[in-house]
Amino acid sequence: AAQATIKIGVLHSLSGTMAISETTLKDTVLMMIDAQNKKGGVLGKKLEAVVVDPASNWPLFAEKASQLLEKDKVSVVFGCWTSVSRKSVLPVFEKDNGLLFYPVQYEGEESSKNVIYTGAAPNQQAIPAVDYLMKEVGVKRWVLEGTDYVYPRTTNKILEAYLLAKGVKPADISINYTPFGNSDWQTRVAAIKKFGSAGKKTAVVSTINGDANVPFYKELGNQKISAEDIPVVAFSVGEEELSGLDAKPLVGQLAAWNYFESINTPANKAFIDQWHTFIKNPKRTTNDPMEATYIGFNLWVKAVTKAGTTDPAKVIDTLPGIETPNLTGGTAKVLPNHHITKPVYIGEVKADGQFNVVWKSAGEVAGDAWSDYLPGSKNIEADWVTLKCGNYNTVTKVCSGQNFK
Amino acid sequence: MSARDKKLELEGLTVSFDGFKALNNLTLSVDPGELLCIIGPNGAGKTTMMDVVTGKTRPDSGTARFGSGNNLLEMSEAEIVAAGVGRKFQKPTVFERLTVFENLELALAGTRSVLKTLRARISPEQDNRINEVLGTIGLSGRRFELGSTLAHGQKQWLEIGMLLMQDPELLLVDEPVAGMTPQEIERTSELLLSLAGEHSVVVVEHDMNFVRSIARRVIVLHEGRVIAEGDMDKVQGDPKVIEVYLGV
Amino acid sequence: MSMLTVNAVNHFYGGSHTLWDVDLTVPAGSRMCLMGRNGMGKTTLLRCIMGLQPVRSGGIAFDGTDLVKCAAEQRARLGIGYVPQGREIFSQLTVEENLRIGLGIRKNGARNIPERIFSLFPVLKKMLNRRGGDLSGGQQQQLAIGRALVLEPTLLILDEPTEGIQPNIVHEIGDIILRLNKEEGLTVLLVEQKLPFARRVASEFCVLDKGRRVAAGPIGELTDEVVRAHLSV
Amino acid sequence: METLWSPTKTGDRGGKWFLSVLALIAVAAPILNQAVPASSPAHLSAYGITLIGKYLCYGMLALAVDLIWGYCGILSLGHTAFFSLGGYAIGMYLMRQIGTRGVYGDPVLPDFMVFLNWKSLPWFWNGFNHFPFALLMMVVAPGLLALVFGWFAFRSRVTGVYFSIITQALTYALMLAFFRNDMGFGGNNGFTDFKDILGFDLHSDLTRVVLLITTVATLAATYLACRTIVESRAGRVLHAIRDAESRTRFLGYPVESFKVYVFVFSAVIAGIAGALYVPQIGIINPGEFAPINSIEVVIWVAVGGRGTLYGAIAGAVVVNYAKTYLTGAFPEVWLYAVGALFVLVTLFLPRGIIGLVQTRTKR
Amino acid sequence: MRRFSMGGQWPLVLLLAVASVTRIYAQSPKDAAFLSVLGELREASYSDKASIAERLSQTGHSSVRVVLTALLEDRLYYRNSDQKVFVVKTADADPLALIDPLSLKAAGSAPADGMTKIGTNNSLRHTLKMTVAHFSLGSADAAVRLDAVHEMSLSLDEETVALLRKRLAVETNSGVRKEISIALALSTLDGSDSRARLQAVATLSDSVSQDVRNRLALLLDKSPDGTFVESDAKVRQAAAAAVESIDRWRTFYSDIQTLFFGLSLGSVLVLIAIGLAITFGVMGVINMAHGELMMLGAYTTYVVQTAMPEHIGISILVAIPAAFAVSGLMGVLMERTIIRYLYGRPLETLLATFGVSLLLQQLVRSIFTALNRSVITPDWMSGELKLNDALSITYNRLYIVIFTLIVFSAIVAVFKRTRLGLDIRAVSQNRAMAKAMGIRTEWVDAMTFGLGAGIAGVAGVALSQLTNVGPDLGQSYIIDSFMVVVFGGVGNLWGSLIGGMSMGVTNKLLEPWIGAVLAKIFVLVALILFIQVRPRGLFPPRGRAAEDK
Ligand SMILES: Nc1ncnc2c1ncn2[C@@H]1O[C@H](COP(=O)(O)OP(=O)(O)OP(=O)(O)O)[C@@H](O)[C@H]1O
Ligand SMILES: Nc1ncnc2c1ncn2[C@@H]1O[C@H](COP(=O)(O)OP(=O)(O)OP(=O)(O)O)[C@@H](O)[C@H]1O
Ligand SMILES: [Mg+2]
Ligand SMILES: [Mg+2]
Questions:
Q1: Which tens digit of pLDDT belongs to each residue from D57-92?
Q2: Would you say residue B144 lies in a domain?
Q3: What is the C-alpha to C-alpha distance for residues A358 and A252, in angstroms, rounded to an integer?
Q4: What is the pLDDT of residues D27-55, one digit of tens each?
Q5: What percent of chain E has pLDDT over 70?
Q6: How far is E511 from chain B (nearest CA, A)?
Q7: Torsion of CA D152, D157, D162, D167, to 10 degrees
């Protein structure tokens, strides 16, 4: 049926705990759609956003996903932030053969036929960060501090295996988990201080999530732990998070991302300007998941144009191999495992809440769905082009766990 | 008479609140079928005594026995009721969001266990009984109205009705005629007199005319202990009672 | 001159009509006794006067002020003291605090509980620091009267004030009412079931039956016929 | 004769209506889904089936809460704990059913255990590969928890808000515990990616229709059971306990036993509701334990009309339908609408939606 | 407007230009060398900047310390128009107050966008700190000297030791003297004289510093070849004893610290609960919007700070009454429009206030977006009070403990001592009778609710110093606050105090043992069990009246 417009689903929480992060991405998608429409849309049709609010409620994510796919019949969905929300909608996308662009760094260990992962896999963020600390800063002792959920657990598993493989002694690794929204960090920070006073250079690798970060950094500041003493490298603290707290006590702390607002390229500058105009606030920051959304959107447009249809099944087949420039001067290319290539940057927090890039990977790193450092996934491979499988076991030669038909 | 034959036997009860002794080594007993009146100044400990008997308040010391071998102090409220003690409270408390009829139905003697009440039905005899009591307490016309809509005096009556439904061996009646008209008082005294004999009845009241009309044995409490005991005339003549209670 | 005039008041509890065109006049300096069997609407009428129940129609005037337009709390400030049925003590407040409540609105700004209260009810003095709710029923009744007197009202409304009170104190309450009436000109409106007390204390009476005024007059006219007609069951 | 003495209850017009609606759903939903072609506007998609199923599960949970709150005055702010336990019980079965079809292809261990390096199945997972056992557990787990918790709490005479708050503490503690990955319940992600139930593909429309009919039937049965309880004398005892607990005690009723019985019964209903919910929704995770969810259930009951069993169910359906509709239609401002709904219902419909309907029909 | 002010500034700029020209002529060769090295900083990479800083300090110019400190603190800028380097008074101000790097005198001001900051990174800052420490040894401020000594003792080379020796000779402050002697003792440990080493160990055994302990512990290690690092057995023995003693003290102090952590967590719990203890405990309103009232308080802090960016230091003090007013007024509004119709129906208040909480959340989301707002911690509240090397107490926590106690006492005083307090209690117990006694119940209700709400707002100010200021702030605290109130016994303020404190302390005592999650679970379970023993909380309402419920 020829629709007048092409519908695009936006599945980001606008209320509840995740609204703080996801609202921005909703706006980003709207901005991209707006811009694309000004360029004449896609395949000669205008794009129309269908925004829903899954309200940070995981079952509601599944419900809203099926609403978008079955009722609104959208061509593509941009959405989700937390892993559990993605896990919740995954069966829906696989059943209805929809297409989801997922824009956030995550723990890996997944590759679905119906999802394109435009955020970083662990090898595009965590491992380079640890390498940097080890080689450039000379860190000998490690605190892996995380919120108790899958992303930190998996990332820390990978990092622990990685560090041990690099000869770090188990006694020099401390792993700790705190609950979601932990707001009292006195004890933990004191413990980190103690762990760090053993006379060896110590660093914290933080996979602390969301709201818990602000009280964590405030406590670090209050207990006078500065970045020169014990640097903290975080994977979920970006420009947007920093805009919500007083960054001065954090100066010098590190973050690893695939994009920083402060990276000076013409594309980025244009993007930032476009964002400021769209959101009508010149002070709003941009961040990594926004870039991932930007990349995802452009990849989709290119794939649709190439396929000549918005039919998700065809678009999915077209996507691997599609390339689009990212905002920092490189190229994002969809890999057969539905991840993309991304550069890795490490930045130090500046007093104005921006990052000072102190390290950059040589070229783009290919996203790895299945970590090479976990015993269970070493032998698993994802390839939607030749193998047509998201988790092909290279030893048993079986493809399991797929819901698509 | 040996202690075994008493219906209710209180010995050496002491109850104190924050050091204040509401009951002070109180000893008294009630015979089977007896109608006992207890009078005494405000704050003498009458209600507290009933609280102890019904298990609401636990005494600091002393014993309380009911019938043959029931140690009230070791029983829960429900067990005490099951053993045959019924009570009308000083401040009338009825179930406000149940109808008058339902209030009586719940008081109906008989099963109290969860599973049995689940299957309980009102038998024709029971229905008759309820109607009879409704007549006695003058609330026949309001049987389907909620407890909350009753006036103070009507609640008093409903409580008495509930007591009748329960058909306990021992009735503790705390100020039954407060707020009643003379004629109602008269009816109440007839009612209580008719109950005595088959039941033991303990009545607390400040209305001397009423007490006189029903009293056989009267006990006077003061500051948590018995200060006088005997028939009405004896008690009324007691100078101590006159001083602390009756006045001139 | 009449201190309180109730004029054709109608009152409903939801759908049920409780007061039917009730009239009541309490002359200044009189001691009016409101009588009637249980559930006839005595308490309801008093609550209407106090503003604790809204009236459907009719007027209530106190000392020339139209009470119907006044908020409930305003009425106490006009000088009406109320001793409700069931005492309604502030149970978690101490006896002293219960008494102090009334000090707040006294015009002369008195800061201490009038000594008179304690001479009327010595037991209250002994129990100043006990929680009101812990008092025995009779003690609470005394506290309720004391509490109303702290307001130094010109009209004192008592709903069955002798309920649950020991005989000698009942007598005393009678004396107190008479004395306050005589010495300070306090007007009294009380509900009372006990005929001897009513006859001793009251100067006028008014009988309610099923929410209607059925008889009224000086207490001397409260004959046995009236009693039989309206007060017995 | 028997209904004569309960004029306060509105006869049973509402109940009959309610049961008829359920019957209608049971008949119409399968036809609209299976027989009507997908292109027709009358077609009921799997999405619609799932939505109705979800509403009804929530309705059942609301029914459980209303039974104890509306009739016995026990306000549980932790009822989703029982709901979630039921859900987890069935979830464990569903996880075991995945078998080698998990991403790592492990025949025994669920995926989340594989990538967290678990070597063997924890003991409490034993038995869950059998459906009857899971069925038993979805009743036993919430029931037992309610029994132990209720027995202690009621025996100690914990009442009113104190009880409410410790139920909240209970569900909060369970939430934190289930969030822990070390617990062996999949941590924050919980269980997802179910494949089939009793050999039937969970993603097929037919299975969904059957699940919906099962839900309808269970809801009707529990509704009837609850109605039987509240209309029996035991029901009036519950009322009495709600009005004046200690007075009930002085009438000789073992108040504690009544409370424990009804609390456990209610918990079991909640557990069953959870167990029906999970296969339809496709995910169970510790977020379901969140205290705020339990509070919301109470709110459904209040919106619908407390103390009327079908009212509670109606409340759950209405609020959740409103949520579904508003989060789609007004994603940016829907909270205003829901917030205002709650405020307005309280102010203008003190007896809830059902109260409104009742007064309307009476006139 | 703008043109006017520009015009007004022209003469000033001219004057400055003249002044700088004259100064160029007055430069000594030393100044010139200094300036040219300084100029290199503009374009250099971070690693080059480190060596430039080294060269700067070698010039021996009197401004070196000030300039390097400024660089360390992000206060070194250059002017885009003439590339001239300036120190500025405070970073990130607009306009910037300039200080001439040579004369260290004020040099006017410049708009921020005309200046570029000379940035630093971690390793550069690390080097700078060491360098500055050398200079700071001569500072007039003892605290600065102490810091300097401490910094220097972390890397003791010959030059540093010499500097310290020289300083010890003239140092008068006993604290600094002690720190220097510890540093010197540490350096002695590397020496060859075993007597001196023994002496040094003795000196060091008085310390409770972790660094000292680590250094002493090294003496006990064996080198790879199996011999002891420290050859003298006596020194080893002494060192072992010293290590043990230091450890014992450190454990002791860390226990004290844990206790303080507990009290500070406890006071947060108390603070978030006091308002609820009034609205819920006293008035019986199950106020689900309590959290959102706190959130309003936190946002008020943000707004106040935004309104007075020049006075962050006192902004918090201004925010307290402001937040009280904002939340209090919101409370009064809620009471007047909703709650007043619900007295006697406590469970309905749950429903309505839950609705209000959703409305308020969405309201701030609409006004302030879903993003967190940044609330700055003023200087006087940041950092820690260092009692010794093993025990420090963070200022913000300390202030919050004190603040909680103040708020609590104030509320208790209101309730016990004032007329309003008596009226509040009377109304909450029997609204109708209170009316009949002439109390203006409506007014009292509004005031009470407003008071509770206002206190919630004040708690929000404190929370803004600890955690996110975002629309969800309230949600994360509401459950805890109800628990505290119920644990203490509804309606009992003291109960909330003791209850909150003991929950905090229990939590923190357990946390090092079993981790944050289990500690929290344990506290919840303990609460459940406690309620079994005391079904009406820590301080239950007592007496007959309480039973008749
Ligand atoms: N919980 C309590 N705390 C403190 N004092 C109490 C408590 N309960 C009762 N009292 C005191 O104990 C005394 C006895 O009270 P009780 O109610 O038994 O008197 P009573 O004889 O029934 O009086 P009345 O005839 O006035 O009803 C009173 O002085 C009362 O104040
Ligand atoms: N809250 C209420 N709701 C509905 N009806 C009520 C309510 N309170 C009282 N009634 C009814 O109103 C009528 C008058 O009650 P009221 O309390 O005024 O009687 P009363 O004359 O004071 O009786 P008593 O002597 O028993 O105190 C009674 O029939 C009573 O059932
Ligand atoms: Mg008594
Ligand atoms: Mg009356």
A1: 999 999 999 999 999 999 999 999 999 999 999 999
A2: no
A3: 10
A4: 999 889 888 888 888 888 889 999 999 99
A5: 94
A6: 40
A7: 30
pLDDT band (50, 70, 90) for residue E2: very low
Domain housing C172? 2-230
Establish whether chain C is in contact with chain B, requiring a minimum of 3 CB pairs below 8 angstroms: yes
DSSP letter assigned to residue A236: S
Residue where the block lists tokens 């920093």: A242
Prior bond of E95 cis (ω within 30°): yes
H or E element at residue C188: strand C187-191
What are the pLDDT digits (tens) for A79-134? Answer: 999 989 999 999 999 989 999 999 999 988 899 999 999 999 999 999 999 999 99
| Tally of domains within chain B | 1
- What's the predicted TM-score (pTM) here? 0.90
Model confidence pLDDT, tens digit, residues B38-54: 999 988 999 999 999 99
pLDDT surpassing 90 at residue B35: yes
Closest CA to E545 of D238, C84, B91: B91
Q: How many domains, chain C?
A: 1
Query: Mapped to the 3 state alphabet, what secondary structure does C125-159 carry?
Result: HHCCCCEHHHCCHHHHHHHHHHHHHHCCCCEEEEE
Q: Is the dihedral of CA D337, D339, D345, D351 positive or negative?
A: positive
Ligand 2 atom at shortest distance from the alpha carbon of C47: 18
Q: Which of C92, C134, C141, C143 to mutate for ligand 1's pocket (most ligand atoms within 8 Å of CB)?
A: C134
Contact residues for A345 (Cβ-Cβ < 8 A; gap 6+): A256, A257, A258, A259, A260, A263, A328, A355, A357, A359, A360, A361
| Interface contact C123, partner B, CB < 8 A | yes
Q: Give ipTM to 2 decimals.
A: 0.90
- Quick: pLDDT tens for E6-39: 444 444 444 444 444 445 445 677 788 888 888 8
Neighbours of A38 (CB within 10 A): 8
Q: What is the DSSP letter of C202?
A: -
State the closest ligand 2 atom to the C-alpha of B155, by its place in the atom list counted from 1.
26
Mutational pocket test of ligand 2: of C13, C16, C209, the residue with most ligand atoms within 8 Å of the beta carbon: C13
Pairing of strands A341-342, A345-349: unpaired
- List E residues 467-486 in contact with D (Cβ-Cβ < 8 A): 475, 479, 482-483, 486
Residue A147 to residues A175, A202, C180, D84, D189: CA-CA distances in angstroms? 11, 20, 75, 22, 13
Domains of chain E: 32-123 (no CATH), 152-231 (no CATH), 252-381+392-546 (1.10.3470)
CATH number of the domain encompassing residue B86: 3.40.50.300
How large is the average pLDDT for residues C91-102?
91
For residues D126-143, b (16+ Cβ closer than 10 Å) or e, as one string?
eebbebebbeebbbbbbb
- Residue where the block lists tokens 């007993």: B29
pLDDT at D315: 94
Could you tell me the residue range of the domain that residue B177 belongs to?
3-94+150-246
Q: How far apart are CA C70 and CA C65, in angstroms?
A: 9
DSSP E374: P
pLDDT at res. A402: 61
Gap between the Cα atoms of D234 and B119, Å rounded: 8
Q: How many residues does chain B have?
A: 248
In a domain, B126, yes or no: no
Checking DSSP bridges between strand C187-191 and strand B170-174, what pairing results, if any? unpaired
Task: Determine what percent of chain A falls in helix, strand and coil, rounding each to the nearest 5.
Answer: 40, 20, 40
The CATH number given to whatever domain includes residue C127 is 3.40.50.300
Residue with tokens 């939801």, as numbered in its chain:
C14
Q: What residues have CB less than 8 Å from E309, skipping those under 6 apart? A: none
CA distance E431 to A242: 50
